[in-house]
């Protein structure tokens, strides 16, 4: 299936309020980039030259520990989610984390200068960006709440529901080690909890792909 830059941007929340002319102009400056599974999109410390919109597949954003051995997965993004939308506005514009494709993926690259100009020239884009960043801030607050106050099963259930809402059924999980780092636990507990969800009929698992069969059961666990 062909991926069209303009169609991807039109479905991305930050750009949805653009008129046709502005959208076409931005699409002409952007370009598609295809990534193999495991291919690096950018590395922590690289200068920020562009932001990215995921068009297809899944991309994980992560940091390495000081020894360069262990990954801490910060978030996983699927179609129509933006990467590096904060980094482009930093006073010292360097990527604060790294990103790589979890699956074969396609991203839209938007040059930093073109995005700056668009925000300056189009107040609706600036307002949409503020709303988007506010939602991301809310996600960080919920992440802190989840790590500090919730049991691992509830954290995992909330994570699965969030991925389902953003990406639909059949999304790809990171490895158990990466997911454990994200949920502030250990891989063995992640494996055990996923197995419990599977045996209860709440999820269906095929390799690393997940179908949420009973979202209401996961919501009850989160709410409980």
From TrEMBL:
Entry-linked SUPFAM superfamilies: cAMP-binding domain-like, Winged helix' DNA-binding domain
Any GO molecular function: DNA-binding transcription factor activity
Domain HTH crp-type: 150-216
Pfam families attached to this UniProt entry: cNMP_binding, HTH_Crp_2
Keyword Transcription: yes
Keywords: DNA-binding, Transcription, Transcription regulation
Domain Cyclic nucleotide-binding: 14-136
Transmembrane segments: none
Cellular component annotations (GO), alphabetically ordered: cytosol
Gene3D superfamilies in the record: Jelly Rolls, Winged helix-like DNA-binding domain superfamily/Winged helix DNA-binding domain
Alphabetized PROSITE patterns for the sequence: CNMP_BINDING_3, HTH_CRP_2
PANTHER family in alphabetical order: CRP FAMILY TRANSCRIPTIONAL REGULATORY PROTEIN, HTH-TYPE TRANSCRIPTIONAL REGULATOR ARCR
The protein's name in its UniProt record: Transcriptional regulator, Crp/Fnr family
Organism the protein comes from: Marinithermus hydrothermalis (strain DSM 14884 / JCM 11576 / T1)
């Amino acid at each position: 299936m062909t991926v069209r830059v303009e169609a991807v941007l039109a479905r991305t929340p930050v750009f949805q309020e653009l008129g046709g002319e502005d959208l076409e102009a931005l699409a002409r400056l952007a370009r598609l980039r295809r990534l193999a599974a495991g291919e690096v999109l950018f590395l922590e410390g690289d200068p920020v030259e562009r932001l990215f919109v995921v068009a297809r597949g899944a991309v994980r954003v992560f940091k390495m520990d000081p020894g360069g051995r262990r990954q801490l997965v910060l978030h996983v993004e699927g179609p129509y989610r933006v990467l590096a939308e904060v980094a482009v506005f930093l006073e010292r514009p360097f990527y604060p984390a790294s990103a790589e494709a979890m699956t074969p993926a396609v991203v839209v690259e938007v040059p930093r200068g073109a995005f700056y100009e668009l925000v300056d020239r189009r107040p609706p884009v600036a307002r949409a960006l503020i709303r988007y960043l506010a939602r991301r801030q809310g996600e960080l607050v919920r992440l802190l709440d989840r790590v500090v106050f919730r049991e691992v099963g509830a954290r995992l259930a909330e994570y699965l529901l969030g991925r389902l809402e953003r990406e639909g059924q059949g999304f790809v999980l990171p490895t158990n080690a990466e997911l454990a780092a994200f949920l502030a636990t250990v891989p063995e507990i992640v494996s055990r909890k996923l197995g419990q969800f599977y045996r209860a009929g709440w999820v269906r698992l095929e390799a690393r792909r997940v179908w949420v069969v009973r979202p209401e059961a996961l919501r009850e666990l989160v709410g409980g």
